[in-house]
Design goal:
This protein is mostly helical. Helices cover about 60% and strands about 0% of the residues. The chain has a domain of about 45 residues. The longest helix is centred in the N-terminal third of the chain and has 20 residues.
């Protein structure tokens, strides 16, 4: 699969995941909300590492620079 995420998008996803993990670790968010957000954070990190966001594909969104 071709990558469709740029570096800024990938960095923001990792930062958001780290913030959510920190909030869950310190107990600011708890319960079902924490569980759902931690799962979503895991997906964010996975897509950031791979560089492909499946939700971008049907809409044709690309945040990476196109090579000419």
């Amino acid at each position: 699969m071709k990558k469709n995420m740029g570096s800024v998008d990938r960095i923001l996803r990792v930062i958001i995941a780290a913030v959510v993990a920190g909030l869950a670790y310190t107990g600011v968010i708890t319960g079902m909300l924490a569980t759902v957000l931690l799962i979503l954070s895991g997906v964010f990190v996975l897509t950031a590492v791979v560089g492909v966001c499946p939700l971008y594909l049907p809409f044709g969104i690309k945040t990476c620079k196109t090579g000419k």
